[in-house]
Amino acid sequence: MPRPIQATIHLDALQHNLARMRAAAPDAKVWGVVKADAYGHGIERVYEGLRGADGFALLDLEEAQRVRSLGWRGPVLLLEGVFEPRDLELCSRLALWHTVHCDEQIDMLAMHKTREPHRVFLKLNSGMNRLGFAPRRFRAAWTRLNGLPQVGEISLMTHFSDADGPKGIAHQLRVFDEITRDLPGERTLSNSAASLRHGADPAVRADWIRPGIGVYGSAPDYPEHDIAHWDLQPTMTLAARIIAVQQLAPGDSVGYGSHFAADAPMRIGVAACGYADGYPRHCGTGTPVLVDGMRTRIVGRVSMDMITVDLTALPQAGFGSEVTLWGRAGNGAVLAIDEPARSAGTLGYELMCALARRVPVVTA
């Protein structure tokens, strides 16, 4: 039989979370963000769950081709725009909208031959300092784009750096409002955190929101708020099974390096999941897991193919018991991906995207 580990993608949760993001920003249109192969879920797997979006936003042309091949005829936005002149040919052929964040991309458009003008999203660097035109240069870029016959409608965008934290968005929102106040075009500013925390403000939600991680069932401002607070549901479950049980006497150690030693008699289970499956090696003793839907913990180091979990308080658990590493257990109990991610010193984003190819994936 196959090794007992599997990831499950929950379409009902995707639909729920998309609706939740839409409700948080009333009257705004919603991009279904499917970059990084839909945050590790697989574009083809999530498509049915996200068809209720008003458009799909992604990074590269291969992803855009996949979305179009699934039958999507609505808007598709390249969030980083094009990288070389020939990319514009595919934008024309697939009717892709694309971000413009630097002079070089305007140069490419000026040389591009197309029958249909392109819809572009001109990006303002309002303080994130990654992509976008500085405030002092933004209007000149807009003027130049507006004069190109290759460009049709110009939309306006920026990206918040601190929507999930105490610094907030006010400083960037002020810059965006000042620079774009009298310019025409639709606007998009908000990621998941901004949409959930500030989406009631029309200036923040604007015309389009771009929720990513929230749609995939992770709280964008964890640990301040968890998914229950935001009424989000896990969209990915990673589950394995117990393949062996060991009895420990006081002083017995577990795993490589003997980093954990029992201080009392213990019963531990060995689960078929390790860092080669995408489970973080940095999840040490105390990281929560669910065994048969009951909360317990990892003990010892995560190894390549196995982890060890504490069964001492779970006498009913044994060989074959379900181990939920994150997501939804068989009895309905939930372990949000944010919890093991925090134990590993990272974010739920990374765990989703790091799911290994060797893990079988099903859609439910």
What does this structure look like?
28% of the residues lie in helices and 24% in strands. By secondary structure, it is of the alpha/beta class. The chain folds into 2 domains: 11-218, TIM Barrel; 236-363, Lyase, Ornithine Decarboxylase, Chain A, domain 1 (Beta Barrel). A hairpin with a 2-residue loop joins strand 14 (288-291) and strand 15. Helix 1 packs across helix 3 (43-50), helix 4 runs parallel beside helix 5 and helix 7 (135-146) packs across helix 8 (170-180). The chain is elongated, with a radius of gyration of 23 Å.
CATH architect. name of the largest domain: Alpha-Beta Barrel
Strand percentage: 15-25%
- Return residue spans where pLDDT drops below 50 for at least 5 consecutive residues: none
Percent helix range: 25-40%
Secondary-structure map:
Layout: E1 5-9, H1 11-24, E2 29-33, H2 35-39, H3 43-50, E3 55-58, H4 61-69, E4 76-78, H5 87-94, E5 97-100, H6 103-111, E6 118-123, H7 135-146, E7 151-157, H8 170-180, E8 187-190, H9 192-198, H10 202-205, E9 208-209, H11 227-230, E10 236-248, E11 253-254, E12 260-261, E13 266-271, E14 288-291, E15 294-297, E16 307-310, E17 322-328, E18 334-335, H12 338-343, H13 348-353, E19 361-363
Parallel strand pairs: 1-19, 2-3, 2-9, 3-4, 4-5, 5-6, 6-7, 7-8, 8-9
Antiparallel strand pairs: 1-10, 10-13, 10-17, 11-12, 13-16, 14-15, 14-17, 17-18
